[in-house]
Specification:
The protein is mainly α. It is 80% helix and 0% strand. Helix 1 crosses helix 9, helix 8 packs antiparallel against helix 9 and helix 10 packs antiparallel against helix 11. The protein is globular.
């Protein structure tokens, strides 16, 4: 594993984690009538804290794109999942809530899961890229599942809606990372003209904006611990599926390696959930309102 890829991916995770917390701080105060509407972005763009969060997220996406340019998606995605560690750090500073057993346990699971998956799987690139049919099939399945989750989230609104929206956004972001890698390869091999005459960079933009609306709607209606774990868990899983499915990424497939890879992914998800449910994660507008009523 390249030290440069490691540094870029972890730096990207840091920017993303801090950016998500700042975005949720602002989105929690947005009007609930803007749920799943483009108006939400128009309202938030006037909030300095939200703009700072978006700036950090953009920096994270740029660093992540550079990491994807030099490393495999199945390698970079688990490292990007550590953004929750940095989100927890900022949230803990804001709330003053100690980590406790749950926090430290979640940190250990997430860090250990990422390490186990990368060491066992040894992700590497390959020239055996999948054909167009498999390419579009995987893209269609990932995008289709995200669409179904969004439709159901709109119906459930303030109950399961935020988690479902975050899951949908995570799937789209994982797909976006795969297209980002393709775009970077086209730019390095064929130059700018070759890049702008293909559909992938435009797909990156569409997926990014759509995911942003979904994420902000989730942040608006629920505490961060109900949305960020789902987002953080779905993105690497979708990215790994795309990387192995049609980008030619290869993982070790012997019995022992597969067992450790599965255990690593399970530990990543468990750690994300444990950290996301930690009291240090800031509350959303709805939960704050309920807390005031209860008081």
């Amino acid at each position: 594993m390249s030290v440069l890829v490691l540094a870029l991916a972890v730096s990207a995770a840091c920017c993303l984690g801090f950016g998500f917390v700042l975005q949720q701080n602002a989105a929690a105060r947005a009007p609930l009538g803007d749920f799943l509407s483009w108006r939400l972005l128009l309202d938030l763009v006037r909030v300095p804290r939200w703009l700072a969060g978006i700036g950090l997220m953009v920096c994270g996406m740029v660093l992540g794109a550079l990491a994807l340019g030099w490393g495999e998606v199945s390698l970079v995605e688990p490292l990007l999942a550590t953004n929750l560690l940095f989100a927890m750090t900022l949230s803990r500073w804001q709330t003053g809530q100690p980590l406790g057993r749950q926090g430290w346990g979640g940190l250990a699971l997430l860090a250990g899961g990422v390490t186990a998956f990368i060491v066992a799987g040894q992700p590497r690139g390959s020239v055996a890229v999948a054909g167009p049919m498999r390419h579009w099939l995987i893209i269609g399945v990932v995008a289709g599942v995200a669409l179904l989750l969004t439709v159901y989230a709109k119906r459930s609104r303030l109950s399961a809606g935020p988690a479902l929206l975050a899951l949908a956004a995570g799937l789209l972001y994982g797909l976006q990372d795969a297209l980002t890698r393709i775009s970077g390869q086209r730019l390095s091999q064929g130059g700018l003209f070759d890049l702008v005459t293909t559909w992938q960079p435009y797909g990156v933009v569409v997926l990014g904006v759509t995911g942003l609306v979904l994420v902000q709607s989730a942040f608006e209606t629920a505490p961060l611990r109900m949305s960020l774990p789902a987002l953080t868990a779905a993105q690497p899983l979708a990215g790994i599926v795309c990387g192995v499915g049609f980008l030619g990424d290869r993982l070790r497939t012997d019995t022992g390696a597969l067992a450790w890879e599965a255990a690593g992914l399970a530990a990543i998800v468990a750690g994300i959930v444990a950290l996301g449910l930690h009291p240090a994660m800031p509350a959303g507008a709805v939960e704050k309102q309920r807390e005031k009523i209860a008081a």
